[in-house]
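Example 5.3 — NUDIX hydrolase
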Amino acid sequence: MPSVEAGAAGPLTALTPITLQFAQKAFIVSGGRLLLVRKSASDPFHPRRWEVPGGRLEVEADLDLDDHIRREVWEEVGLKVDPGPPFHLWQWFMPDRGGPPGGQVRVVAAARRCRPVTLDATLGNQDAGDHLDGCAWVPLGEIGGYDLIPSLRPVMRAFLATAG
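Solution (predicted structure tokens):
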């Protein structure tokens, strides 16, 4: 490969710009049921599909990773949780709507088991960007009947394999 002088355009500058973000998802179980949330019809990526609560880290606002997952769960479903350890890491790509044309966001995510401190889930705290219109406590044996967002499917398999 030919060398590139410092400051000169190199072969990587032609690649699509990628922004890296970090997310966490909360697997909250109570009484043999997992809390799922449903994306609304207005969700730009996965309308009407199901997932678990969580979201991307706000670097300036979240004090630490436990604070981050607590905030996300509170905003999306109004529950207080006790965060547990991560059990799975994965990634997905999505268009960068606020970045350069053709840019992408690479989201690296951690799935965490969380113990609920409260149980009355509500969507009243979410902001419009969450695009949620429902939540349900689903028996673990019935999760296979829910249309999950594609990137969550292998994570759900890993969770269910160890949930018994």
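Remark. Helices lie at 65-77, 153-163.
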